[in-house]
User: Fold DUF1049 domain-containing protein from Streptomyces castrisilvae.
Amino acid sequence: MSPKDVSSSGKSGSGAFTPGRILVLVIAVLSVVFIAENTKDVKVRLIVPLVTAPLYVWLVVMFVAGMACGAYLFRRRPK
Assistant:
């Protein structure tokens, strides 16, 4: 029997629910709960103007800004 004919019946992440997918699902559920719990308006001073928005909006804005900074700093440069 060749190695190609033998099917692996191991459960080391070969199904629909891999550890990575379960982790992403848990983080997504926690994020939705976090957003639902933090809908209260907060005031944020942006240098001069005072802007009022829900807390989750400011957290998402800061997350996107951090991702943009990280993508800029760690982008792959052509050799």
The mean pLDDT is 82. The two ends are 46 Å apart (CA to CA). The chain has two helices and two strands. The helical segments are 19-37, 55-73.
